[in-house]
Design brief:
EC 3.4.16.4; PCB_OB; 36% helix; cell wall biogenesis/degradation; six-stranded antiparallel beta sheet; 26 helices; 15% strand; 757 residues; five-stranded mixed beta sheet; glycosyltransferase activity
Length: 757
């Protein structure tokens, strides 16, 4: 009878020959330059790991938990079946008798339905697997295939998902916890049910000791070890979501749908320490600004019951819809008055806010506060920990920001933060936000002027300018300096350091707007986004932060145009290299501007960071090799700082997505410069001082302590310009060039191309 069943069923069993070359669906994984995982894309978290590289402790834990006699039986463990049967008959805790081979048969090929037919097929398939594959092959498939909860398939993925560490570093206690998951990955999951997971872990440790895999001392130590689960909201983890998403788009454009199943590993230029510093700096800059804003009120109000158990459930429900945002945490107010707020967080911790911690929300604690602003019992609020380890009330910011850092010597992206929070706003402001650069654009006008005979010592009049309606053909235009004052004749060096608008306009008048429009193309700017009118002198065109970083890199590297790049290596799941990018070596085919032009511009930008609007940069970083320019647009809609040290060019930007005033006293120097400085304190720490202006290139001379082109040295160049005449701006120019909408469909290809070059 059994023989007949075998003869009939065997030909209908699935073909298992492909299991000899086991290839499950593997996700796209994105790494920093050091190999730190920064992103994973695919339905299944999975990391195919050869059995030879799986640590013994993990294999022992699985064998102890699931099938201690795996290497001794032929697929069915008759002793185990007998033991399980006796235990089940005696109503002892129900025991299963599925061997590892049976589980592979079931998980890879069969459904989970509990029918006699399926069970027969499972047994037959088990014999077939044992006949065609080695024990190690079967075990390798199991260790990589089994579902372990939290979207993790296989123990390597589970180690990353639960503990945030590679499998090779796993401890006995952690291995036992993971080995306890296959029986019930939902119920035994340490995230969902820590108590049950702990009980299962202790059982596995005991089984490991019984099987002789570990000693009694090791078992006792493992039971005492405190496990720290990976927390997705952990503020200390590396935040590089915008980078990972950019890589995902690049890979999808290249590989299509197979991107998410073929196990591609993409290594980027990102430096983990730099990325962490950029994230922390941008968040701090935005939250510092937020402290100065009017309190907009709690995010929600809920009715809180008095019964403690019902209260816990109400708090859980409320905060599930308002999760923590990194270090900006959510809480529900239990009690509030003008002197104190008591609140509870999602983890059950209660906190008290008093004194200075209440200051940002004073308007919400006033007796006269309107109902939507009033902080009261049941209000969902935001809190942050202060440096003094006290609590402060805050609010999620409406303002946005961006930060990008490149190595100007080859274009490698070292850090990129596309916004305050990726989950809150996936729009990447580094590559997609077209904004007015304001005064941070002036250096490119000055660079053009050097080729027309201007020198750092050229005197230009900082005096009022007025263009009437008859001249413009539209509305009258009367540009102002930021502080509203005029200082009269001054050198170009001082004018750039003090960011004098009138001087920039007069310089542009002199050299011609068409010439300047052509010149800025050398830096990678798009001519059509910078109309050839005088407001271009004040940065009225449109740029992205990535463009600005690329453009400032030209000054930093001696005049070469380098394209930013992000991907260094792509491998398959077996680490075979598919694509490898070599950093470009600077050569004359990449020259964008003359070396002497870059040299003198560096001298001017160094002055800005020493004595001008960015003097805080050199003063704080305490090194002279710091160069850059602040930028604040009309009505303070955008705040910039773009600058560099010879090994690092970086740009910080802040503004609202729907442009509106940041505030009358808010500037690039006050908002974006501190972000840039905070980043540089980490990024160039220990980097030797390298003064670009230490050795003058050919064609440059120093006369009286000032640098000149040798053919425009004193007596030969333009000596004095108090120019009033020049090209007339159009009506469009008077209001400034449009900022530009969110990226059009064609922008997607431009963004992808940005990183391909």
């Amino acid at each position: 009878m059994i023989a007949v069943a075998l003869a009939v069923a065997y030909p209908n069993l699935p073909d298992i020959s492909e299991l000899a070359d086991y290839r499950p669906k593997l996700p796209l994984r994105v790494f920093s330059s050091e190999g730190i995982l920064i992103g994973e894309f695919g339905e299944e978290r999975r990391n195919l790991t050869p059995i030879a590289t799986i640590p013994k402790v993990m294999k022992d834990a699985v064998l102890a938990a699931e099938d201690a006699r795996f290497y001794d039986h032929g697929g069915l463990d008759y002793k185990g079946l007998l033991r399980a049967g006796i235990a089940n008959m005696n109503r002892v805790k129900s025991q299963g008798a599925s061997t590892i081979t049976m589980q592979v048969a079931r998980n890879v090929y069969l459904s989970s339905e509990k029918t006699l037919t399926r069970k027969i097929y499972e047994v037959l398939l088990t014999f077939k697997l044992e006949h065609l594959l080695s024990k190690d092959q079967i075990f390798e498939i199991y260790l990589n295939q089994i579902y372990l909860g939290n979207r993790a398939y296989g123990f390597a993925a589970a180690s990353e998902a639960y503990f945030g560490k590679p499998l090779k570093d796993i401890t006995i206690a952690q291995a036992a916890m993971l080995a306890g998951l296959p029986k019930a990955p939902g119920a035994n999951n340490p995230v969902n049910n820590p108590t049950r997971a702990r009980g299962r872990q202790l059982y596995v440790i005991d089984r490991m000791q019984e099987a002789g895999f570990i000693s009694a001392e090791q078992a006792a130590e493992a039971k005492k070890e405190e496990l720290h689960l990976r927390d997705a909201a952990d503020p200390t983890r590396l935040h590089a979501e915008y980078v990972a998403e950019t890589v995902r788009q690049l890979m999808y454009a290249q590989y299509g749908d197979s991107t998410y199943t073929r196990g591609l590993k993409v290594y980027t230029t990102l430096v983990a320490a730099d990325q962490a510093a950029a994230y922390k700096s941008l968040r701090k800059g935005i939250m510092d600004y937020e402290r100065r804003q009017i309190y907009r009120g709690p995010e929600k109000f809920v009715d809180l019951p008095n019964d403690p158990k019902e209260l816990d459930e109400a708090v859980d429900d409320a905060l599930a819809e308002h999760p923590d945002n990194g270090d900006v945490m959510s809480a529900v107010v239990l009690k509030a008055n003008a002197k104190e707020i008591d609140a509870v967080r999602a983890n059950g911790d209660t906190l008290q806010i008093i004194g200075e911690g209440l200051r940002p929300a004073q308007s919400g604690l006033s007796d006269k506060a309107p109902p939507n602003i009033k902080i009261r019992r049941g209000a969902v609020i935001r809190v942050v920990k202060t440096p003094k380890n006290t609590w402060e009330i805050t609010q999620l910011p409406e303002v946005e920001g961006a930060f990008i850092a490149l190595d100007p010597r080859d274009g490698a992206v070292k850090a990129m933060i596309g916004g305050f929070d990726f989950d809150k706003n996936k729009f990447n402001h580094v590559t997609q936000a077209w904004r007015q650069p304001g005064s941070s654009f002036k250096p490119f006008i000055y660079s053009a002027a050097l080729e027309k005979g201007f020198t750092p010592a050229t005197v230009v009049n900082d005096a009022p300018l007025f263009f009437d309606a008859g001249t413009t053909g539209g509305q009258p235009w009367e540009p102002k300096n930021y502080d509203g004052s005029f200082e009269g004749p001054m050198s170009l060096r001082r004018a750039l350091a003090k960011s004098k608008n009138m001087v920039s306009i007069r310089v542009l008048q002199s050299i011609g707007t068409r010439y300047a429009q052509d010149w800025i193309g050398n830096f990678g700017f798009e001519r059509e986004k910078h109309p050839a009118y005088l407001p271009m002198a004040l940065g009225a065109g449109a740029v992205t932060p990535m463009q600005m970083a690329t453009a400032y890199s030209v000054f930093a590297n001696g005049g070469y145009r380098v394209n930013p790049y992000l991907v260094t290596r792509i491998t398959d799941h077996k680490d075979k290299v598919l694509v490898e990018t070599q950093p470009p070596l600077l050569n004359e085919t990449m020259r964008a501007i003359p070396q002497r032009n870059a040299f003198i511009m560096d001298s001017l930008l160094q002055e800005v960071a020493r004595s001008g609007t960015a003097a805080k940069a050199q003063a704080t970083l305490k090194r002279p090799d710091i160069y850059g320019k602040t930028g604040t647009t009309n009505d303070s809609l955008d705040a910039w700082f773009a600058g560099f040290q010879p090994t690092m060019a970086a740009v910080a930007w802040m503004g609202y997505d729907t442009p509106r005033k940041l505030g009358d006293r808010e500037t690039g120097g006050g908002l974006s410069l501190p972000i840039w400085i905070n980043y540089m304190e980490t990024a160039i720490k220990g980097v030797p001082v390298t003064e670009l202006t230490a050795t003058a290139p050919p064609g440059v001379v120093n006369v009286g302590g000032e640098w000149y082109y040798d053919d425009y040295a004193p007596g030969r160049g333009v000596a004095n310009l108090g120019i009033e005449a020049g090209p007339t701006p159009s009506a469009e120019a008077i209001s400034g060039a449009p900022i530009g909408p969110a990226p059009q469909p064609e922008e997607r290809n431009r963004i992808l191309e940005l990183f391909r070059n």
